[in-house]
TrEMBL record:
It comes from Immersiella caudata. InterPro entries: NAD(P)-bd_dom_sf (IPR036291), SDR_fam (IPR002347). The keyword Methyltransferase does not apply. It holds the Pfam family adh_short. This is Retinol dehydrogenase 12. Keywords: Oxidoreductase. PANTHER family: PHOSPHATIDYLINOSITOL-GLYCAN BIOSYNTHESIS CLASS F PROTEIN, PHOSPHATIDYLINOSITOL-GLYCAN BIOSYNTHESIS CLASS F PROTEIN-RELATED.
Amino acid sequence: MDKIRNTIAENLGGPFSKLGTSHFSLDECPDLTGKVGVITGGSQGIGFGVAYTLLKHNISKLYILSVSKDVIDGAKTVIADELGRDKANRIKWMQCDLSDWRRTKEVAEAIENDTDRIDILVNNSGRGIMNADVTDYGVDRHMAVNHMGHVVLTSYLLPLMKKTAGRGDIVRISNQSSNLHQGAPSDTKFASLDEINRDAGPNGQYGRSKLAGILYTRYFDRNVTQKGHPNLLMNATHPGFVSTKQSTQDIHEPYPVSGYVMSHGIEPLKKSQFEGAVPTVYAVTVTKKSGEWICAPATPETASAMAQDDDLMDNLMQLTRNLVREKTGGEAVVSI
Ligand SMILES: NC(=O)c1ccc[n+]([C@@H]2O[C@H](COP(=O)([O-])OP(=O)(O)OC[C@H]3O[C@@H](n4cnc5c(N)ncnc54)[C@H](OP(=O)(O)O)[C@@H]3O)[C@@H](O)[C@H]2O)c1
């Protein structure tokens, strides 16, 4: 019975979100005075809900990485109107398309030169359920943005995060995944570029990249947290079904007509962007654990069998390292 209640609470908004056995609300976010954070996709959707909450709870500086200037300008106006000009001025926006790994490295290095600490990294940006496409590097766009771009970003921020954690503070990283990781093709091996460039259909494309986010989380926990950095935590999150651009507009790219079921049909049941922000805020401000799959609101759950597969995890990270090095001509490398 608890499992059913938790599944409903995890995925749906409003009164449904209260049915679960675990509870966490954004009001429980601790005071973040003195902390510095980095968030991808913090300008709209769930990421905006997270950014707003971190600022509301006094984070000292927040780097937001995203694509569109118009969107971040709108976001800053809302923050200034609702939380005050001082909070809006704590945002430093950096344009960064995560499919461009050279640019991602450059942005990470600029952040490292601009701050002496990083306490929070939210890897949130994402390409939703959309058609297959490839980046300028010739790599599947879902994998390149949702997984590899975030691995590059994390790699280049890692020295400063290790330094921050080495001073005795807890540094927390979250990867925005989804329970739709279960839609990854069952023959996924992460064995080659050809394999990940094979069109798996909109759900399969998305699911594969979200599976990668959980595997990377477990890999980081095994190779970094458990290997001498106990204060440097990484967890993956599932926000539930949330009303955002992904679920109201982008879904119509692959599904022009049937997408209306998601964009309009189940709209009243979806979570708001703030409800969707809850597991991430928990993961980057409260948890003391690492390597977990945290479902809304703050419930560690067991992800799919593929997400537990250590061989798949090692293949994924080998492929990630190889592709980043090869496609950037060695200008960007993955350090773990
Ligand atoms: N909505 C849901 O029901 C749901 C469920 C499970 C998981 N998720 C995940 O939650 C995360 C946030 O999605 P959302 O629903 O809040 O969608 P959203 O409102 O469309 O926000 C997506 C964010 O990602 C940024 N972004 C997109 N492509 C990028 C790129 N190539 N490089 C850098 N940033 C990029 C966008 O930047 P701009 O603002 O500049 O456009 C935007 O800020 C995603 O990882 C998504 O897969 C969502």
